[in-house]
């Protein structure tokens, strides 16, 4: 009987270890990093830190917090306010949204910015970046609530001006045309909210699938929204009436972008599409080396996009590939630009950030020091 | 291999059951309960075999001939082991038949736990991973995101209820109690004071509730729903097959049985 009992104990311990492993993976919010740039500095939200990295030389300027905490995890897109304040939310068990003052650094060696204010009323993870409109912060949380904060009230511990309960998890930064705030939800809906009265401009639209990307206000003033229903729809912002723009082969994850003429977006089946905004006709589509989860980036010269296979592509307005660079790892985070450079944040690569010039040549990479 | 054989089918089975009752409040909780019933139905013959095996082993412990052999070779462990194997063979007992279903439970528990976490997809990366493992026959775009609420619980999180300001782990307690009841019901009476299997059964009836109670306390409450449903079905199975030893639940019940 003893061996049998020992076997039971062994299996039980093994089960506990395996379950603990799953739990820790599920418990802290493991996902791809958030990325932003203010032109001079790149902000990388990755794991337990938010890093500020100089775009000139790839040097770490500061990190937040000073010491890693198991309760703080960063995956949301950092947001740079007009006054230079950086706003970032945690996806860890500590659900704080914090505003950092990069002009007030402290610490020897590793620098850390001072906290300008914190907001701790959210009940779940911050996966998306906030939208700043005039003096208000519209912060979408996974608890399904869009929190509205006053940017100028001077409080170091903020309370919500308004909590707009939308139900489903909010994973996308809201979009705006200046008149309305457009919020997309993982529970399939698109909402239009008046930023002053907080009332809905029109009834929420069911898009038939999750919408994890930011709605785009197109060159004609229409909204363009992609979803897991494998389609991109065009919405009249005055009436809330939606019409199919185009169907895709796979789920559309990243929000569409525009260069003023075409609407660009990718899908998880590995396609990049360009649709003429005026006519609604598909201009072209190409098949890169893997699924396209991030939003494309429109630069002066090209449309830059990343693939799950770890490649960065630049295509011209006619869909011709100008260059391709294999960075490595898997890239889901939308690329950003600054100082005539293209910044990408791969997962499971040798480095956390890669910076390319406009010809696709790698300028430098960034790996955080421990 | 693990993903293809366990996680993917489990996740898809959960999603499929969920899709059948997507409009029912607490659909994911009901999906876990139905999933457990399916698993229990599939492993019913194994559980029946376990009960039969445990019964046969117990009868052997009470067998006069075996008790005499135990006394005779008390100091010769090697010979005793040889004799034990001979008696097993004579009586047609498979010594592993009683522990096999218990061992099978562990991959199911681990697989179900991972399937629950995968299906609830709380981050963009986990949602992307979920998209990759959903079978094309399921309309994943319409199903996702799953509603993780069931009764008062969030099935993706450990459960507790605030009582007078204290966080009380209701499900962990129910898991421990139902596991204890189930293990007590399956403990046959033994008149042999040197009966190792009876001693081990008694030890297991204490450790198993604690172990599963700890799992329920620490991990997603969806797993606790599985434990409780599985335990209740186990108790039901013992009851309908007439093998439940209800006397064991009474204080001193096992002693009464021994003295008979």
What would you say this structure looks like, in words?
The complex is a heterodimer of chains A (370) and B (260). Chain A has 370 residues and is mostly beta strands. Chain A has a domain at 31-171: Lipocalin (Beta Barrel). Helices cover 7% and strands 41% of the residues of chain A. In chain A, the strands form eight sheets. A four-stranded antiparallel β-sheet of chain A has the order 1-2-3-4, with no helix packed on it. Chain A has a four-stranded antiparallel β-sheet with strand order 5-6-7-8, with no helix packed on it. In chain A, strand 21 (257-258) and strand 22 form a beta hairpin. Chain A is globular, with a radius of gyration of 21 Å. Mean pLDDT of chain A is 93; it is low at 22-28. Chain B is mainly alpha-helical. Chain B has helices at 2-20, 27-42, 44-61, 64-72, 77-91, 100-120, 124-133, 140-143, 170-185, 196-218, 221-240, 253-259, and strands at residues 149-150, 153-154, 161-163, 166-168. Chain B is elongated and about 70 Å long. Chain B starts with a helix and ends with a helix. Chains A and B meet through helix 1 of A and helix 6, helix 7, helix 8 and helix 10 of B.
Counting copies of identical and different chains, the oligomeric state is heterodimer
Radius of gyration of chain A: 21 Å
Domain module tally of chain B: 1
Global morphology of chain A: globular
Q: Beta-sheet strand percentage of chain B?
A: under 5%
- Derived structural class of chain B: mainly alpha
Q: Could you list the spans of chain A in which at least 5 consecutive residues all have pLDDT below 50?
A: 22-28
Quickly count the helices of chain B.
12
Percentage of helical residues of chain B? 55-70%
Number of strands of chain B: 4
The radius of gyration computed from the alpha-carbon positions of chain B, rounded to a whole number of angstroms, is 22 Å
Order of helices and strands of chain B: HHHHHHHHEEEEHHHH
Shape of chain B: elongated
Helix content of chain A: under 10%
The beta-strand count of chain A equals 32
Structural class of chain A: mainly beta
Give the strand line-up of the largest sheet of chain A.
1-2-3-4
Terminal-residue CA separation of chain A: 49 Å
């Amino acid at each position: 009987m003893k061996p049998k009992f020992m076997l039971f104990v062994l299996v039980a311990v093994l089960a506990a270890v395996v379950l603990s492993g799953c739990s820790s993976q599920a418990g802290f919010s493991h996902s791809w990093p958030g990325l932003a740039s203010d032109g001079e500095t790149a902000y990388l939200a990755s794991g337990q830190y938010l890093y500020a990295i100089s775009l000139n030389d790839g040097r770490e300027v500061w990190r937040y917090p000073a010491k890693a905490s198991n309760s703080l995890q960063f995956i949301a897109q950092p947001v740079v306010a007009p006054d230079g304040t950086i706003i970032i939310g945690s996806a860890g068990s500590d659900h704080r949204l914090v505003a950092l003052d990069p002009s007030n650094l402290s610490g020897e060696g590793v620098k850390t910015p001072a906290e300008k204010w914190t907001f701790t009323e959210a009940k779940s993870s911050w996966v998306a970046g906030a939208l700043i409109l005039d003096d208000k912060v519209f912060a979408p949380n996974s608890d399904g609530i869009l929190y509205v904060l006053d940017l100028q009230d001077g409080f170091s511990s903020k309370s919500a001006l308004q909590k707009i309960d939308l139900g489903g998890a909010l994973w996308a930064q809201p979009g705006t045309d200046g008149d309305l705030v457009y919020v997309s939800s993982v529970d399939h809906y698109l909402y239009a909210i008046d930023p002053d009265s907080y009332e809905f401009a029109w009834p929420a639209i069911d898009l038939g699938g999750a919408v994890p990307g930011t709605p785009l206000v197109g060159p004609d003033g229409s909204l363009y929204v992609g979803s897991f229903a494998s389609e991109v729809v065009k919405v009249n912002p005055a009436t809330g009436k939606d019409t199919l723009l185009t169907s895709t082969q796979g789920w559309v994850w990243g929000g569409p972008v525009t260069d003023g003429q075409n609407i660009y977006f990718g899908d998880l089946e590995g396609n990049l599409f360009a649709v003429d905004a005026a006519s609604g006709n598909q201009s072209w589509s190409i098949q890169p080396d893997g699924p396209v989860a991030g939003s494309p980036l429109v630069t002066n010269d090209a449309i830059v996009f990343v693939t799950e296979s770890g490649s960065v592509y630049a295509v011209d307005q006619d869909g011709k590939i100008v260059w391709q660079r294999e960075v490595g790892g898997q890239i889901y985070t939308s690329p950003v630009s600054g100082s005539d450079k293209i910044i990408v944040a791969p997962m499971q690569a040798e480095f956390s950030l890669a910076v390319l010039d406009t010809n696709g040549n790698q300028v430098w990479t960034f790996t955080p020091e421990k | 291999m693990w993903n293809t054989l366990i996680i993917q089918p489990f996740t898809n089975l959960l999603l499929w059951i969920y899709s059948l009752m997507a409009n029912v409040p607490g659909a994911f909780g009901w999906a876990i309960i139905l999933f457990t019933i399916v698993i229990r139905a599939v492993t019913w013959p194994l559980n029946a075999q376990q009960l039969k095996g445990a019964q046969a082993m117990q009868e052997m412990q009470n067998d006069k001939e075996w008790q005499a052999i135990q006394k005779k070779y008390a100091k010769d462990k090697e010979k005793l082991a040889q004799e034990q194997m001979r008696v097993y063979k004579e009586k047609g007992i498979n010594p592993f038949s009683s522990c096999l279903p218990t061992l099978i439970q562990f991959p199911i528990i681990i697989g179900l736990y991972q399937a629950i976490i995968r299906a609830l997809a709380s981050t963009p990366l986990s949602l992307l991973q979920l998209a990759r493992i959903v079978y094309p026959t399921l309309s994943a775009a319409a199903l996702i995101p799953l509603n993780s609420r069931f009764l008062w619980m969030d099935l993706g999180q450990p459960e507790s209820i605030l009582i007078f300001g204290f966080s009380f782990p209701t499900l962990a307690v129910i898991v421990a109690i139902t596991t204890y009841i189930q293990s007590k019901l399956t403990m046959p009476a033994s008149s042999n004071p040197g009966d190792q299997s009876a001693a081990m059964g008694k030890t297991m009836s204490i450790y198993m509730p604690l172990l599963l109670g700890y799992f329920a306390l620490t991990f997603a409450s969806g797993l606790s729903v599985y434990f409780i449903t599985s335990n209740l079905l186990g108790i039901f199975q013992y009851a309908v097959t007439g093998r439940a030893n209800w006397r064991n639940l009474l204080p001193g019940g096992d002693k009464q049985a021994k003295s008979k």
